[in-house]
């Protein structure tokens, strides 16, 4: 495989622009660059999450997600190009169904807490939501394919579900639970 990056410090961005995959230059503050950056940050956060101990099937899924996010970043970097396929969205749908089926129904809102791995999955979820908002904003300015928006939407849902899975499958063997929000309204209802 040929080297795709031969030089990192090009100094071509010193004027506040960056090059896209089609060799056009745009402002580093453009909607497209914001979307690319949020997707890159999400991929990096998932890399941090992968430093934690977790069950092998969850790890394998998250590694696949990283590859698909790289495809998404590539697609965003080349206007009009498609790298993220609908099959990637279907994989997330299947994973959502699989992992949701193993979890108890939620009785209340949960806090982004519990084990370190679960908490990191929540951080990834929030970054996925931000990346989704950036892609939606870009899509309102320039027409995009459906898959990027759908993928980020499903992925944020999956990361929420995986946070619950990670809380229950801790490396120490002590199964945990969700950390529930203590709602004042519900507390009053329970005592009345």
TrEMBL record:
Residues 8-165 form the Cobalamin adenosyltransferase-like domain. GO terms for molecular function: ATP binding; corrinoid adenosyltransferase activity. Its EC number is 2.5.1.-. One of its GO terms (biological process) is cobalamin biosynthetic process. Signal peptide: none annotated. It is an enzyme of class 2 (transferase). The keyword Transferase applies. It catalyses: 2 cob(II)alamin + AH2 + 2 ATP = 2 adenosylcob(III)alamin + 2 triphosphate + A + 2 H(+). This is Cobalamin adenosyltransferase. It comes from Polaromonas eurypsychrophila. The lineage of its organism: Bacteria, Pseudomonadati, Pseudomonadota, Betaproteobacteria, Burkholderiales.
